Fold Xanthine dehydrogenase small subunit.
Amino acid sequence: MKPELSFLLNDQEVKLTEVGASDTLLDYLRVARRLTGTKEGCAEGDCGACTVLLGRLTESGLIYEPINACIRFLASCHACHIVTVEHLSGPDGGLHPIQKAMVQHHGSQCGFCTPGIVMSLYGLWMSNPQAGASDIEVALQGNLCRCTGYEPIVKAALAAGAEGGQAQDALTVERESVAARLQQMRQGRVELTKGGERAIIPADVDDLAAVLEENPKAIIVAGATDVGLWVTKFLRDISPAVFIGHLMKDVTVTDGEIRLGAGVTYSEAAPLIRQHIPAVHDYLLRIGGWQVRNMGTIGANIANGSPIGDTPPLLIALGARIVLRKGETRRDVALEDFFIEYGKQDRAPGEFVEEVIIPLQPEAKLAAYKISKRRDSDITSVAAGFHVTVENGMITDARIAFGGMAGIPKRAAQAEAALIGQPFAAPAFEAAAMAVAQDFEPLSDWRASADYRRAVAGNLFRRFWLEQSEPDLPVRLKYAVGE
């Protein structure tokens, strides 16, 4: 165990001994280091003005991803490389190709959001040199700009991609040496204190189990896309906090299932979903913006227990299970049984989600839906996962789960019963659309009224039928990322 946080900031190594659980990366950059190109806009990971690149070690090497500094806790940056907009200029102080293109194509007006946009485009420029307009639009989901209308920004990104130069970029040239420096920092548990706050960074998963046995009431922080708001919006005390975003990244795929470590992020899961469950790939791209998907984890979205969490309805529909661990003891729980009532899950103090198991059933008809006020980077009003099995024209099984319709993510038992045993035809889905009203008594809030939620739930059955019966019917916009 060591009481020292170590990371790289641009071209400097940083070592800190006094770090609080609630200290954010944004405050450190702006206040302690005066790197004011990183802005505070929303303080909730929504606008992207605070975007920086975070380099982290993976099994495939060092990768760089845009993240929101406003809700990223400083303690979670241990053994990482933080890159701010100030680091983009060359040795002669000249502009980076991304910055040049933004100037040439008039991609900046008031300029407040520009540094964050530049950093998102920088991350895309490095990771996808052949990015097309759809890729750029997805990369900018988490960057709000009220001035430009985005068209000149997209043109700038396309121009920078066409110019190339990634092989000569500093983050490419120095990648091996940076990776070696970060690897040296990843040794042992780190415990930090400041002003009575405690932050703990376990060395590995076994150490995490030990930490939680010692501190069963500690707040577990993975991507901080929710816990970050506890601090920035509600000023909650999260100490002691255990930071686990670097753990449980294992992925195993067999013919029958996908096993995801609970620390796998949405971005890390996306290629697997696209390959093995392509019907729901678009849904994953509706979860937050790119920055949020680079931080948020599948396991934490489950453990959080929110009734409007994006992944549980889909995962319940797919028949997913989770592995819960306390010390050396593990237990396998059906995901639908994990949620008991609002604010209560089947998880004991000191127990944590270690793994998510998703059965693969390629013969099933699948869909996932997210209804929100804004298409991109918005919180769900209603979410749904559909899993319907058809044999010889008859519906033999149906698993339909909703979020936002009750105090927990929950299956629509009456609607399922209306489908099973019926011909795969419009009348069955019309009956299910009427029956779903018996499954839920939704609440009204600022996101949606109860009547709206009931109407949406019924209409999603009709939409599912239209999509399945007429695949070419343009009932939804689709992202064509990478195509």
